[in-house]
Amino acid sequence: MTETTSRPPYAGTRYPRLADIPAFTEWIGGGWADVQTRPDLPVGAAAASAAHRDRLSAALPGQTLVVAAGTAPIRNDDAAYGFRADSSFVWLTSCQVEDAVLVMWARDGGHDAVLYMPPPFRPGDAGFFSNALHGELWVGPSAGLPEWADALGVEVRPLADLGTATARLGGALTARSAVAVVPGAEASTELERTLSNLRMVKDAWEIGQLREAIDATVSGFGATVAEIPRAIAEGLGERWLQGTFDRHARTLGNGPGYSTIVGSGAHAPILHWVRCDGPVHDDALLLLDMGVEARSLYTADVTRTFPASGSFDATQREVHDLVEKAHRAGLAQIRPGTPYLDFHFAAMEVIATGLHDWGLLPVSVDEALSPQGQQHRRYLACGIGHHLGLDVHDCSQAHYEDYMGADLVPGVVMTVEPGLYFHAHDLTLPPELRGIGVRLEDDILVTETGSEVLSDALPIDAAGIELWVGERMAGR
């Protein structure tokens, strides 16, 4: 073998300029088998999205509408965050392709929907080997435009075609997700509000997806609780439990629907304790707020508070019992025709009364519950419920009168989640209450005759929780 001191011009792990070498591009472009890849869609997804587009078309006749999937932001250097498509785009398309854009072109009597997306970089394309984010050499075979068109039953065109059509988009209603792809566009409040309002009422397919997400979440609670003894004994802490659930969510769904909260002891009262970098204390409460996001991107959102030892002590149980009482009061208000906020007021009255009975309020219950009071909210500053769907806090672009000012109707899926958050450094509290945090959160469907607690496989009473925890810790 002849030795040489010459080196190839781009000798490293990155090859952005290999496309300039004809011999290489010719060689790497051929000799590949054709891998047939189809979109992996949940059963019924395409039909559900078509129905959603019909509802949007009827709500905004005569308006061209633009909604985009979005682009994953860069995490560091050339590494991107995992892509998660815009929720309204998914509601309308069931497509999760990065940079895809849906245009619903206005026509007499309705809309013509066209989905624009970047074709995959396949053998023979320079991007096949030079684009580390999307080239098939890097990320694997992907469904092409014809496969997407067949799977979704909608016209699909190359994203480049949208560039030649942008002149026709003047005056179009553009979603926030699509502002970057329509020159000079501003986010349309009318379109965002309409989409939020339409998404509030779930159809049968969406409810089925939420059931799957919630059932997977319940089993994830079991898997996580079973690891509590190990997390304590081996000093693995909160992060071990967080990782246990996240692995479960990634296995049974797309992943966690939001940052998993695992708070032990003094971390339990911290509302968004997602750092999860503390130990699990064997004598303290453990607050788990967790939800599996299905592959369709519909998510659960469930919270329970467990005694890490398996049993509540007297003070912990007293706090838990008050939260349970508030939770049941809120659940009792979920039914058709009831003002949305009734569950909030019912639960808050229970909380304020209990805190007053414990001598923790500086005013009467009536004064605390008045708009000018709210002193009880020191220990419950967050809201205690929200719509649930593709987003954990679903339909957030709806106006107040459409959301909180409306009556409940069948098909609404929402959470009820009262709690008490007694921070360890709160000097208004007696020492025995400091560092106790309790939240109960269930996912509820409004039915024709009342409501259904979709997450009721998890107990909410202290005795039931102790029994449930004990069985999981024992491996049953």
TrEMBL record:
Q: Catalysed reaction(s)?
A: Release of any N-terminal amino acid, including proline, that is linked to proline, even from a dipeptide or tripeptide
Per the UniProt entry, what are the Gene Ontology biological process annotations, in alphabetical order?
proteolysis
**Pfam families recorded for this chain?**
AMP_N, Peptidase_M24
* Cofactor(s) needed for function: Mn(2+)
- Has the keyword Thylakoid been applied to this entry? no
Q: Which residues form a coiled coil?
A: none
The record's annotation in SMART domains points to: AMP_N (SM01011)
- GO MF terms held by the record: manganese ion binding; metalloaminopeptidase activity
What range(s) does the Aminopeptidase P N-terminal domain occupy? Answer: 47-190
Q: Which Gene3D superfamilies match?
A: Creatinase/methionine aminopeptidase superfamily (3.90.230.10), Creatinase/prolidase N-terminal domain (3.40.350.10)
- EC number(s): the record gives 3.4.11.9
* Gene Ontology CC entries for this record: cytosol
Alphabetical keyword list: Aminopeptidase, Hydrolase, Manganese, Metal-binding, Protease
Listed PANTHER family = XAA-PRO AMINOPEPTIDASE 3
The family annotation for this protein states: Belongs to the peptidase M24B family.
The molecule here is called Xaa-Pro aminopeptidase
Q: Which organism is it from?
A: Microbacterium oryzae
Q: Species lineage, top-down? A: Bacteria, Bacillati, Actinomycetota, Actinomycetes, Micrococcales
